[in-house]
Specification:
Elements (H helix, E strand, L loop, with lengths): L4 E7 L3 H14 L4 E6 L12 H6 L3 E5 L7 H11 L4 E5 L3 E2 L2 H12 L8 E5 L10 E4 H6 L14 H11 L4 E8 L1 E2 L11 H12 L14 E3 L2
Parallel strand pairs: 1-2, 1-4, 2-3, 6-8
Antiparallel strand pairs: 3-10, 4-7, 5-9
Helix pairs in contact: 6-7
Length: 225
């Protein structure tokens, strides 16, 4: 049966987090498509102790073959390129959904309650909306140009720039306040030293919106399963 939604997870050396996702996915893997984009982890996803469980759940697995620093834009673009449903739910590694929340999303899609011209974020228990965890159609994602891979190599501003790209083509962000996204932990220790570089790139990029051309998937990758 064709499914309306693909949940796309970005993965990089986070097997503890992946264990948490896998445990939850077992509860609702028949409701949606699931995919993992392995961003050239030190240990490939097919070497993970969870690999057999992921195969049993028919999770689609992809691996980027070049270890590019802060390649979140590339990971998200690959996820959207290979997703086989109309709607895609990008999910950060340190966030996840309970089955009842996934069922709410699926029901909204089946009843066509969500505007395909808008993009959607979610509530967290602390009252803060999600940033990188977003729901939208693939058509809308590509209409705004997808993630800008010029921001690869440094930390930050990838999600804010995508939001500005979406807004520049007339899309609106809607927070689905009755759908809770769980946070595994609020923050993690990351090298944010390149933040100022991406901040300057961000300022220049938004001056030239809407985006007029794309240059995506600037790396080699493979499908594992």
């Amino acid at each position: 049966m064709k499914k309306d939604l693909t949940l796309s997870l970005s993965y990089y050396n986070d097997e503890d987090y992946l264990f948490n996702h896998t445990k939850k996915w077992k509860e609702y893997n028949k409701l949606i498509n699931l995919q993992i984009i392995d961003d050239c982890s030190t240990e490939s996803i097919d070497q993970s102790s969870l690999f057999e469980e992921l195969i049993e759940m028919n999770v689609s697995l992809y691996r980027i073959l070049e270890d590019i620093v802060w390649n979140i834009p590339g990971v998200r673009n690959l996820g959207a390129s290979v997703a086989n449903s109309e709607w895609i739910l990008f999910c950060d590694m340190d966030q996840y959904f309970e089955k009842k929340e996934i069922k709410k999303i699926v029901n909204l899609l089946k009843k066509e309650k969500l505007d395909k011209n808008n993009f959607y974020s979610f509530q967290r228990k602390n009252g803060v909306r999600t940033a990188g965890t977003m729901l939208m159609t693939k058509d809308l994602f590509w209409s705004c140009g997808g993630y800008d891979e010029d921001l690869v190599g440094n930390y930050g501003h990838n999600d804010p720039l995508l939001r500005q790209q979406l807004i520049s083509i007339g899309s609106k962000e809607v927070v689905l306040e009755n759908i809770i996204c769980q946070q595994i932990k609020a923050d993690c220790a990351l090298d944010r030293s390149g933040n100022s570089i991406n901040e300057e790139k961000f300022k220049q990029k938004i001056k030239n919106l809407p985006r007029k051309e794309m240059n995506i998937l600037r790396f080699s990758w493979e499908k594992i399963h």
